[in-house]
Structure formats: structure tokens, C-alpha cells
Amino acid sequence: MKRLIAIALTLLMLFAVAACGGNSTTTTQTTNSPENNTQSGTESSPPPQQSGYELVLITDLGTIDDRSFNQGSWEGVVQYATENGITHTYVQPAEQGDDTYLNAIDLAVQSGAKVVVTPGFLFEYPIFVAQDRYPNVKFILLDGSPNNGDWDNFEGKVGANTVAVFYAEEQSGFLAGYAAVMDGYRKLGFMGGMAVPAVVRFGHGYIQGAEVAAQELGLADGSVTINYFYTGTFAPSPDIQTRAAAWYNDGIEVIFSCGGGICFSIFPAADQAGAKVIGVDGDQSTESSTVITSAMKLLTKSVYDKLADFYNGTFPGGQEVLYSAANLGVGLPMDTSQFRTFNQAQYQAIYDKLADGTIIVDNNIDIAPDAIPTRAVVVNNLG
Q1: pTM for the full model?
Q2: pLDDT digits (tens, 9 = 90+) for 40-73
Q3: DSSP state for residue 148 in the 8-state scheme
Q4: Could you give the CA distance from residue 206 to residue 61 in angstroms, rounded to a whole number?
Q5: CA dist 342 → 53, 181, 267, 307 (Å)
């Protein structure tokens, strides 16, 4: 019964999105794909419902307009599809779970999807199943690699019709920590969502960036402190706002909000305290005047690139692909950042060192944050 309800809810969501998406989900042109060498044509009106959508994104936890992972990925779909006249839509499942995500994939394929984009590690098992179930459909899995989810009898496989996209979050976090200390902040905070690998890499990079900046500035031992905490959720909550407010009241100047929707609890706390926030994943400067910068994974670029690969006949199926400073896959949005002294020249100098390997950020997630070797930075690991 639960499975039937999940199917019904997902089906309802798919067609609700298709019906009300407007210009963001349909176009007036159908572009040919590498799988059919027919000439693309332009229609005078949107394709009929039964023709479905070539590109479908399925959200993970959160909403399509989360100003974070889902939205950044969706914007890559919209940009490529709009530029090339390709029908596209998204599905926002009614609940979390492997069966629900698989149902959403089934429905996307039944509606005509040629490429399915899935942002987040929660899709590792669903894509592991779906890539064999639908060998003629391409899958772009962000922040994860397909596997059976059984750690005792582990089996992982990136199918020939799947590309697994990863990001050097440790480099993005490094840039945020480096910039904050170079800009004069000495009392920092890190609030991560769930302690999943991507979030941990962000946090560990943040610590290392702060340390490098402190050493470059010649700061004394213990000059910089970082309160470090995982909230256990990607959703906003009164408890998170209360904790953030307490940190600010205790002197924390800026908190790196690294957990999707938890920012909507941290922003008001920062606003009330007259303090600052560092955003994550996408540029969150439009969400709050408290945001000084954002530790970005260039989600839009990565999705756009992989869709272009598909339509150009160069889809990197069977591969894991890393977006890092070396291929401009991570960074800070300097055009919208609100630093006091940290400038573009300083940013470019440190970015180049990451890109060419002069600076290597440790991405080991199996150590505690307060076990990362530091001198100037003191990490208060609060759980």
C-alpha cells in the first residue's frame, strides 16, 4: 500500500509540474539527439503532452528553489535546454526513499526522458538499479556514484549510460576559510547539515583555508577560532536558529552555513546580531544581506557541460568526473561577495595555487575536524 501511495504521489507531482511549469519546463523546439540523427525542427506551439520531456531533473531533499543544490542543478538544465530548444521538466518527489526515487525515474522515462539528472548521494542506489533497467537512457548523478547500498556486500558500478559527477568541496571550503581570515575575521563558525562526505569536505577545507591565511598573515598561535557543528538535517529549524544566535552572541563573527535549507535559520540569527554568513553550493547573496560570499560548487556549469556532451555525442558514460579549481568547477562568486578588504587579485592568486597543485587540500573525511593539523586555528568540535 505504501508503494502504491508513493507511486500515486510521484505521478501527481510529475504531471502537476508538467502542467504548471510554463516557460521553465517546455519549449517550442525539439532538438535532435545523438541517438537519432533526424533533423531537428521548430514547432509553432509547445509539444503535446504525450511527447513528454527529453530532460528531467529529480530533486533530492528540499525544493527546486532551495538556492542550493537542487536549484543550481536545475538552472544547468534550464540553461542548456533553453539555448537549444529542448523540452525539460523536474520532479519533486513527495517523500524521501529509494522506492520513491525509483518511481520518479520510472515515470520520467515513461514520459520520454532521454537524460535524467539526479542531484545528491541519495540517488546512488536508485541509479544503480535504473541504469540497468533503462540502458537507452542517460543518467547524470551528482555527488555520488551508483552502488547497491550494501556495505557488507558492496557492489558499485558506473554504467555505460551514467556519469558520476563529483566536486572538490574541500577546495571550495578552503577558499571560503582563506578569504574570511584574510578579510579580518578571527572568530568563525561552521554549521554543516548531515555529516555526509561532501559536507565534511567543505568543513575540513574551511579549516585548512583559515590556517593557510593565518600563516600568511603571520598570526600567532590560537589567533583564529572555529566553532564546528553538524545539525543532523538539511532543513531549517528553531533549534538551529537558537544555536546560531548563541554563537553570534558569544562573539562568532561569521558562520559558514553548509547544509542546504539550514541557511534559512542562520540568516535571521545573523541579521538580528548584525553578523555575517557564508553560503554554500550556489551564490546565496540574493537570499540575505548577511551573506559575504558563498563556497560554490559550479553545479550549473557541470550539468550544462554533461548535457552538452550528450547532445554532442561525447557523453562520458561509465566515468567518474571531478570538478575542481583545475577545470573551474568550484569557487567564490567574487562579483557579488561583500568582503571588506579581500580582493580579486588575492583571490586569483590563491585560486591559481589550488588549480596548479601548489596547494593541495587534504580531503580525508575519516578524521575529526579538531584533528586537522593547525597552529593558528583552534577548532572547537561541538559534535
Answers
A1: 0.83
A2: 222 222 333 335 899 999 998 778 887 778 999 9
A3: -
A4: 24
A5: 45, 9, 22, 35
> Cβ-count burial of 383 within 10 angstroms (0-12 exposed, 13-18 middle, 19+ buried)?
exposed
**Does the domain spanning 169-296+331-381 belong to CATH 3.40.50.2300?**
yes
Tell me if 85 sits within 8 A of 30, measured CB to CB.
yes
Task: Write the pLDDT tens digit of every residue in 9-43.
Answer: 444 444 334 333 333 333 222 333 333 322 222 22
Residue found under cell 538552472: 75
Q: Which segments of the chain belong to CATH 3.40.50.2300? A: 2-167, 169-296+331-381
* Contact assessment for residue 14 and residue 104, using Cβ atoms and an 8 Å cutoff: yes
Length of the chain measured in residues:
383
What is the DSSP annotation of 21-35? -GGGT--SEE---TT
Radius of gyration, CA atoms only, the chain: 21
What is d(CA 89, CA 84) in angstroms, rounded to the nearest whole number? 15
* Nearest to 170, CA basis, from 361, 40, 328: 361
Instruction: Report the distance separating Cα 49 and Cα 310, nearest Å.
Output: 24
What φ, ψ does residue 113 adopt, rounded to 5°?
-60, 130
The whole-angstrom separation of Cα 190 and Cα 225 is 11
Residue 121 has phi, psi (to 5 degrees) of -65, -20
| Alpha-carbon dihedral angle through residues 97, 66, 204, 357, given to the nearest 10 degrees | 110
* Amino acid at position 44, single letter: S
- 2-167 sits in which CATH class? alpha beta
Q: Which residues pair with 277 in a beta bridge?
A: 255, 291
Q: Please tell me the number of Cα atoms within 13 Å of 10 on its side-chain side.
A: 27
pLDDT in tens, 241-266: 999 999 999 999 999 999 988 999 99
Q: What distance in Å separates the CA atoms of residue 362 and residue 378, rounded to the nearest whole number? A: 17
Q: What percent of the chain has pLDDT over 70?
A: 87
Q: Give the contacts of 244 (CB within 8 A, at least 6 positions apart).
A: 189, 191, 255, 265, 266, 269, 270
Q: Which residue has the higher pLDDT, 60 or 158?
A: 158
